[in-house]
Amino acid sequence: MADNLPSEFDVVVIGTGLPESIIAAACARSGQRVLHVDSRNYYGGNWASFSFSGLLSWIKENQQKTDICDECEDWTKLILENEEVISLSKKDKTIQHVEDFCFGDQDSAEDVEEAGALPKLPVFGASGAEEAAQESEKECPPSESALLEAESQEPAKATGTEPAAAAEGKDAEITSENESSHSMALGESTLELGKTEVAPSEISAQEPKKITYSQIVREGRRFNIDLVSKLLYSRGLLIDLLIKSNVSRYAEFKNATRILAFREGKIEQVPCSRADVFNSRQLTMVEKRMLMKFLTFCLDYEQHPDEYQDYESSTFAQFLRTQKLTPSLQHFILHSIAMVSETDCSTLEGLQATKKFLQCLGRYGNTPFLFPLYGQGEIPQCFCRMCAVFGGIYCLRHSVQCLVVDTESGRCKAIVDHFGQRISANYFIVEDSYLSENVCRNVCYRQISRAVLITDQSVLNTDSEQQVSILTVPPVDLGRPAVCIIELCSSTMTCMKDTYLVHLTCPSTKTAREDLEPVVQKLFNLNTEKETENEELEKPRVLWAVYFNMRDSSGIDKSSYDGLPSNVYVCSGPDSALGNDCAVKQAETIFQEMFPAEEFCPPPPNPEDIIYDEDEIAPEESGFDNSPETKPEPSSEESSSGDSSAVKKEDNEE
Amino acid sequence: MHGRLKLRPPDAARRRQREEKLRLYRANMAALLEKRARGELDAEALALTGEVLAANPDVGTCWNLRRCALPAQHPHWVPGELAFVGGCLGVNPKSYGAWHHRGWVLRRAPAPPPAPAERALCDRLLAADPRNFHAWEHRRALAAEEDPEAELAFAGALLSCDFSNFSAWHHRGRLLALGTSRGGLPPHRLRAELELVHSAVFTDPADQSAWVYLRCILSRASPPPRILCLYVSREDATLAVTFSRPVVVGAQGSALMATADGSALDGAWRSGEGRPRPSHTWLCDLPPALAPPTSRPRLHFRVTWEPDPSPREVTLLPDEDEAWWQEPIVAQELFWPEMAVAEAGVLQAQAGTCRQLLELEPRSRGCLLTLVLLLSALDPLAHRDEIRRCLRDLQEADPLRGGFVADVASRAEAAVAVLRMGPEPGGAVRLRLAGKALTALPLLERATLATHLDLAGNRLGGLPPALGGLRRLKVLDASRNEVTTLRGFPPLPRLEELRLSGNPISHASALSPLAACPRLARLRLAETPLSSSPEAAAHLAQLLPRVDVTFA
Fold it and tell me: Which of the residue ranges A55-69, B394-408, B450-464 would you say has the lowest mean pLDDT?
């Protein structure tokens, strides 16, 4: 099948993380021939989301640290005399210190299978079985953890990777828009699965307060667990890009419903919008006014330099103390609204952060954040889909052996893939984790500490159970980073009914567990049911947890990498910030460097405005109306995908 | 270039859609008008109107044709028609035609439609636009028979999303029967509403909706007009009745009856303003038998006005030239009669809250105005300095509404002056309003007994007809104002001296109404354009032969 890949492209993108996917979409949109590959069997790299069993497989893979055996094909013969080779890394080393814990009774889970492990569509079913076979071949010696033993007794479970990945696995070699409509149907089918399979949740509805581990396993497909925990600022660059490029139609979003603060051992809701302040019962009337007054000032603080210029050299926290704000208001603004450090954030940075937060309010709701349904991992896939619509070719599980560099010009000419095929292109985008240690030896990476918990109730129970909350826990010791917590409810399609998915993120100082466990202990009950003491009863109980460190390769200058040709661009993995601006900025910068004259992701044309027939003169084209695939609604996904496949057919005929 | 899409010029698709829509509309309308001309209002005509309206629910002609055609249809057309209108409202939720048609259909429905369905429609429309007044009005009609608490909660829920919603506040107000009941709100309800308002005004004092609502919940229905004063003068041989509001009596209005010593006075009532309009003061001439030039009989008058059942009485004793009955002035009701007086404690607390907010927001116009109204309602005299200070701040904070603020200030000053008015030795009653920056002259109905009115140094642009109620006025000083003409100046029976120095009166004819004042003897016109005009003196001498006019 590998022989089917064309050997010439304009742009080759290695890695399907967010910035790479945006670049791929932008390139395909501007008419470049794009090949987009990923050595993993799922989209998104470190930006991916997994079902529960998918995450367990991912954990196992990252705990074992075994090298994938080389394909060992003799590709050296493909390299000409005046060419050099830059080898790419075979093994992803960005994830470390993975530790998972189960706080429920695991024994009962031994015989449990994930419900609906395979999609009902026969096409997918067949391919899924094929994948199951492949997976079990790769099965490695049992690990020491009891949990994983239970896992390995159920090899079939490993097939339940992220549904998209499972479906993709069937023809991991090539899926391109014109040859297979499956890649387009892919996103839709996963969405439909999530929506239609309601039946199993009825079981859990009967006893809502006691979720067991076996239930989690059985309902594992209801989880979409993000590796990176981010939210979209509703006026951030990513939202602007999603709207401008019309990629937004591939995704659905939910507003974060509340901002929380952790103060004096208690969790409170932060009133941040005008409606919140009006409705708040915890604030006194004077506090309402003071808070609104300060927030209004922050919205156009540039117009009132006299208010803050005396404090430009002091920290934002000190500046807040000079305003007529009560301690609780200062805490809300510093930690939950500006979300900045108490010790080293200047007044101007704090005002800027506050302004950014406030500007995002009210666009989609009373908080500034949006969360993509089915997880953050949807976003890179949406851009990939856009790329595919405009003719990009996708290969998952497709490793690249090396980059081939012309010694004379110093430019990269081609790649050699794991089948030993040489594919030439003009531009190469490589995600940082694919670069070998040799190239990165001078690069100094930071780390992100992550924890993911499945809990049985929200950290702050209110009348509505379906809340998407963001909580910043200030550091206990000054100078250490604050921990950002995002709690997702089941209506975000990221966890099963009656559970909550809690993401903790902070820049690392030690291992993830050392960084985050103190916070987890403060907010959650880590004991199993029997040992629980009275005071712990009110805290949400953790059912399952995982800690890991992820490499933060953002903000690294290209010159830090050793010996990369000028037409090879490096995309970083996820950063520790809450928003996605960094990835979008990077993608746009790289795209503009490659194609300075091209517009970055312009809106796609209205399907009705596309001219399919060269000879068409009259506005009423008969060929268009007769096409069975197209529908008149310009906004519907079906019509656009149908149209673009029609476009491709046209091209093939020519 | 490879892979480039070939595109039509942008918007071509939309343009074609619009052209298609226009073509359809023209064809349908032409067919429809033809059918109407032939008088064929059948099912086909109905279908044609349906097609046009579904695309554009604002074609009144189609609605009218529909109303003509529908009753001829099969008997159960109402539910289908309601569903059709519902669809049209989806196209344009504020289509007057569609809402009107909906009302028409509902009036013809054999049974009222189920309220939950109707409420669901309102919910949907209000979710899309929380200020859709049609939907609010419809909801209000439904709420009449439903649980008011649920409706209050509904309005509250919309307010909690965004309290800048006059419609939602108004809905609450209507449910609580604000402005229609004579008493105020019950205390527990008032407390809850005040808390809501305070949250809103402290959150955003610049938003006027909550301030307006605050004023509403503190007030009650306007007191109905009533008789404030009876005045009878032997010399003028008239009985004057002053009302709390301008009213019309006699043939066009309510009956006003007066008896003298038991026998009815059958003279016609005339307005004290000298013109047939609603007026504060109405006059009745006494028949010569009652006021003979030679004797001074004791006279007892009794006046009843139809809407105000209690009779008012006044007795003119033989040794008196004049007599009056006057309703005692309640200071708290003078400035803002709609204020619910019973709740002085509540008003004090509100004033305190306003002061607290003003410390944080010294230029909040809603707060300043509310504080002025509250203080004026509590005690205009005691708080006059604070009121003046607030009004000055309000003028600066809200220059766009300068005229309104000046009128409020005039009313406050007038209230203070009225409260300080009282008989002096020698019988003079002075209303002192000099130098108060007045732009209007309110509350004159409370100053009917004044003999001296000092308006010098204000910003009055004219002298109002309401002065006609001042039957005893002898001296009127309106020097240094902005009076250009005396048009509408009422005939004042006792006016002896009028000072108009320093006003921009440039034509002698502007003073012609003064000819109707029988006792006017002195007119001062120094520093007016007239004083430098050579022919003015002659003109005035002709116009006002008995008046001593001074130009210096």
Answer: A55-69
Rg (CA), chain B: 32
pLDDT (tens digit per residue) in A124-146: 333 434 444 344 444 433 333 33
Neighbours of B45 (CB within 10 A): 21
ipTM more than 0.90?
no
Are A286 and B204 an interchain contact pair (Cβ–Cβ within 8 Å)?
A: no
Task: Considering only CA atoms, give the Rg of chain A.
Answer: 26
Q: Do A278 and B3 touch (CB under 8 A)?
A: no
Q: Where are the domains of chain B?
A: 14-183, 184-221+333-415, 227-327, 421-550
A198 vs A195: CA distance, rounded Å:
7
Q: What is the pLDDT of residue A535?
A: 58
User: Which of 3.40.1190.20, 3.90.1150.10, 1.25.40.120, 2.10.109.10 is the CATH number of B14-183?
Assistant: 1.25.40.120
Give the homologous superfamily in CATH for domain B227-327.
Rab geranylgeranyltransferase alpha-subunit, insert domain (2.60.40.1130)
- The reply to whether domains B14-183 and B227-327 share a CATH topology is no
Reported confidence tier of residue B332, pLDDT bands at 50, 70, 90: confident
Q: What are phi and psi of A284, to 5 degrees?
A: -80, 170
List, in order, residues 6 or more apart from A455 with CB less than 8 Å away.
A499, A500, A502, A524, A540, A541, A542, A543
A290 touches chain B (CB under 8 A): yes
| Helix ranges, A390-511 (H) | none
**Residues A586, A429: contact at Cβ < 8 Å?**
no
Residue in B5, B200, B353 closest to A610 by CB:
B5
Is residue A260 within a helix (H) or strand (E), and if so which, with residue range? strand A258-263
Give per-residue pLDDT as tens, B18-47.
898 899 999 999 999 998 898 888 888 888
Nearest CA-CA partner of B357 in B200, B161, B159, B213: B200
- CATH topology for B184-221+333-415 is 1.25.40
Q: DSSP per residue over B233-294, as a string?
A: ETTTTEEEEEEEEEE-BSSSSB-EEEEETTEEP-SPEEETTSSSS-EEEEEEEPPTTTS-SS
Hunting for tokens 């970083």 — which residue is that?
A572
Provide the domain limits for residue A615. 607-653
Written as six digits, the tokens of A151 are: 């896992």
Render pLDDT for B248-272 as a digit per residue (tens, 0 to 9): 987 777 888 899 888 888 878 888 8
Given CA atoms A317, A320, A325, A330 in this order, what sign does their dihedral have?
Answer: negative
Residues A425/A10, Cβ–Cβ less than 8 Å: yes
Contacts of B7 in chain A (CB under 8 A): 605, 609-611
| CA dist B130 → A395, B89, B135, B200, B330 (Å) | 50, 15, 9, 17, 42
Spatial distance between the Cα atoms of B388 and B372, rounded to a whole number of angstroms: 8
Q: Is the pLDDT of residue B14 over 90?
A: no
* Chain B CB within 8 Å of residue A392 CB: no
Q: Given CATH 3.40.50.20, say whether it is the number of domain B421-550.
A: no
User: E strands of A527-590, at which residues?
Assistant: 542-552, 568-571
- Which of A31, A33, A293 shows the shortest C-beta gap to B360? A293
Number of domains in chain A: 1
CB B409 within 8 A of CB B381: no
Disruptive mutation site among A9, A277, A609, A645 for chain B (greatest number of B CBs within 10 Å): A609
Q: Which residue of B has its CA nearest to A365?
A: B161
Residue A628, in any domain of the structure: yes
| Per-chain mean pLDDT for chain A | 79
What CA–CA distances, in Å, run from B530 to A361, B214, B307, B460, B549? Answer: 65, 50, 48, 19, 11
Structure tokens at B59: 């074609």
Tokens of A274: 């005008």
